[in-house]
Design a protein that fits this description.
The protein is an alpha/beta fold. The chain contains 22 helices and 27 strands. The chain folds into 3 domains: 13-336, Aldolase class I (TIM Barrel), CATH 3.20.20; 379-472 and 635-678, NAD(P)-binding Rossmann-like Domain (Rossmann fold, 3-Layer(aba) Sandwich); 475-522 and 559-632, 3-Layer(bba) Sandwich (FAD/NAD(P)-binding domain). In the N-terminal section; belongs to the NADH:flavin oxidoreductase/NADH oxidase family.
């Protein structure tokens, strides 16, 4: 008998009245399906696919218990049987797939994006536009009853339980913390009073739903904002919550307004499991840990170390719905790993778009991306093995087409091979690893170091040719652009050319920021994404948790840049405006703390032996730099297209070859997949 591959991760969790088949929780994610047309039917397919993937327990996106608690005016709410009945298609699909699912009850409080928001006190959030109305005692009671009614309706809808959201700075958390609770009545003042709301909610929910219903409480274990809870307060609340009737306590890390990245790529894997362990030691119910756990190996190690009883992974199930099944079958090398980029999940939600996943465009779009075997297999050539070409070639092969993939260089990955070198973006290695494995499993004929010509493609009589040939750097029209000081971002990141001690970067888009990040780190500086202690010191987090909120009075320990760097932008607008909404702020902080000088509204006059001559706000100056690095955008590279079209060969452009704007890997992978399914 062979030994279990992940014995801790895949062991069942017995709650007495029910058993969760393994220690994996698919954490709550709002996807936007909750509010879209046919959204519940689409959610049913989305959750059912993950249930088929053997995840132990799933949590829905947040559902408000009443109107004032909604995230936005038309966000999902459950306060009547009419609302609950819509959810029955979801719970039925999950149970038919042998899965379990709980509904998250989320009252946003002052974080809501509408003028009717309420909170313990009239304290405006720094990340939302409206000031909340302070609740009266009667209003508080009314909202407690709304939580109870919502839980009861969730049971009616067929859910296996509820998760009560008490972290991330939402409504319940706003009562707990002195930062947002300025009341002087029995709901404010002392900690005993401030924690009354969550305890009362859990107690009354348990009384309403009975004993055979899962109650998870999401406890803010590390607030990461001034005026948050202390470790002892968190422990006290955790004990009271379990006494009130919670079956499981889940970990919440950081308020949404915290200026510390907690889930971005730059955060090390499992960076906060030490927090869960610290609190777990004082509790008796099972405790879940979370944040940046994206492989079964990391999850197994966390459980084996005793840091938690269960692992929550959210975005990894967007990237791969069969994460657990692959781990069970000892095929973890086939998992499509979440790279924590946030580009298609959280960034979409903050733009009121339906969430998806950069590395898996099927996520939340399962009804659109339907793989089917081709009735008439075609002979397909894909030119370029970057993200667009890889996704297209592999998907077309899976559909039964005969595919040849040509790549001029000696490796697959395209622009990802540069991205993976940026400090904090090392996870891009995982996507290349995944594509390499998929190529091994497919029938794609990969031809590396092959610069194929249009005539060769025409002579081979392909039914379809897909050009995924990528981009070439745009060369700005500046006098002296051919000076020996000038390098392109490809020279720096790919060719690894030597760069001097003073540098001017022309262009402050995503690539400009990446190059600045790359050059502002010394070779000796440990990558934050692989070393937890380095990350905690860099962001001023007390890893012994003796300080309130884990941060009060803690100084950041910053490593200085080995270079003097100027990041320049021609446009007269906010620097880094095109960066991701949920990660851009952290990149800007990083560079500011590395003393990178950021200039907007720059006119470039010339480059000579003295450096880069510029004009800013009517004042001319010379930046006496050793090197000028060009990150001024890209142009599509599709030199084979016209000859193929002239020969009447069915030709498609995807990825950067189609549109070079911002090197959008999300669009590239989605385009490649969709095109392959259309053959």
């Amino acid at each position: 008998m062979t030994e279990a591959v992940y014995p801790h991760l895949l062991s069942p969790l017995d709650l007495g009245f029910t058993t969760i088949k393994n220690r994996v929780l698919m954490g709550s994610m709002h996807t936007g399906l909750e509010e879209t047309k046919n959204g519940f039917e689409r959610m049913a397919q989305y959750f059912a696919e993950r249930a088929k993937g053997e995840v132990g327990l799933m949590v829905t996106g947040g559902v408000s218990p009443n109107f004032v608690g909604r995230a936005a005016p038309f966000s999902c709410q459950m306060s009547s049987k009419r609302h609950a009945r819509k959810h029955q298609v979801v719970t039925k699909a999950v149970h038919e797939a042998n899965g379990k699912i709980v509904m998250q009850i989320l009252h946003t409080g002052r974080y809501g994006f509408h003028p009717f928001i309420v909170a313990p006190s009239k304290v405006k959030s720094p990340i939302t536009p409206f000031k909340p109305r302070a609740l009266s005692k009667r209003g508080i009671e009314k909202n407690i009853r709304a939580f109870v009614r919502c839980a009861s309706l969730a049971k009616f809808a067929g859910y296996d339980g509820v998760e009560i959201m008490g972290s991330e700075g939402y409504f319940i958390n706003q009562f707990i913390a002195e930062r947002t609770n300025k009341r002087s009545d029995e709901w404010g003042g002392s900690y005993e009073n401030r924690m009354r709301l969550p305890v009362e909610i859990v107690k009354r929910v348990r009384e309403e739903v009975g004993e055979d219903f899962i109650i998870i409480f999401r406890l803010s274990m590390l607030d990461l904002v001034d005026g948050g809870s202390s470790k002892q307060e968190v422990i006290t609340l955790g004990k009271r919550i379990e006494d009130a009737g919670a079956n499981i306590i889940n970990t919440g890390i950081g308020w949404h307004e915290a200026r510390i990245p907690t889930i971005a790529t730059m955060v090390p894997r499992g960076a906060f499991t030490w927090v869960t362990r610290t609190i777990k030691e004082h509790l008796s119910v099972p405790v879940i840990t979370t944040n940046r756990i994206n492989t079964p190996q990391v999850a197994e190690e966390i459980l084996a170390n005793g840091d938690a009883d269960m692992i929550s992974m959210a975005r990894p199930f967007l990237a791969d719905p069969y994460f657990v099944k692959k781990a069970m079958e000892n095929k973890s090398d086939e998992i499509n790993t979440c790279i924590a980029c946030n580009q298609a999940c959280l960034d979409h939600i903050f733009k009121a778009k339906i969430a998806s996943c950069l590395v898996n465009p099927r996520a939340c779009h399962e009804t659109e991306f339907v793989e089917k075997k081709a009735t008439q297999p075609k002979k397909v050539a894909v030119v370029g093995a970057g993200p667009a070409g890889l996704s297209c070639a592999i998907e077309a092969s899976n559909c039964g087409h005969q595919v040849t993939l040509y790549e001029a260089s000696g490796e697959i990955g395209g622009q990802f091979n540069m991205a993976k070198k940026i400090p904090g973006k090392e996870e891009f290695h995982e996507t290349i690893r995944y594509f390499n494995k998929q190529l091994q499993l497919s029938n794609v004929d990969l031809q590396l170091e092959t610069r194929v010509t249009a005539q060769q493609l025409i002579s081979a009589k392909y039914d379809v040719v897909v050009l995924a040939t990528g981009v070439i750097p745009r060369t700005p029209n500046i006098s002296g652009i051919d000076h020996e000081k000038v390098l392109s971002y490809i020279d720096v990141l790919q060719a690894q050319k030597e760069v001097g001690k003073t540098v001017a970067i022309i262009g402050a888009g995503g690539i400009g920021f990446d190059v600045a990040e790359y050059l502002s780190h010394s070779p000796q500086e440990k990558a934050p994404s692989t070393d937890v202690k380095t990350y905690l010191l860099r962001w001023g987090i007390d890893f012994e948790y003796t300080k309130r909120s884990g941060i009060e009075g803690v100084e950041k320990q910053l490593e200085s840049s080995p270079r003097e760097i100027y990041l320049l932008q021609r446009k007269q607008k906010k620097m880094g405006a095109t960066l991701g909404k949920t990660t851009g702020w952290a990149h800007r902080i990083n560079l500011k703390e590395k003393k990178v000088k950021m200039l907007i509204g720059v006119n470039y006059e010339k480059i000579d032996d003295n450096g880069l001559h510029i004009e800013v706000e009517g004042k001319k100056q010379i930046l006496a730099v050793d090197n000028v690095i060009i990150c001024a955008g890209q142009e599509p590279f599709a030199d084979l297209q016209q000859e193929l079209l002239n020969a009447k060969v069915a030709t498609h452009l995807i990825g950067g070859a189609h549109e070079a704007k911002e090197l959008d890997a999300k669009r590239a992978i989605s385009q490649g997949t969709k095109l392959a399914l259309s053959f």
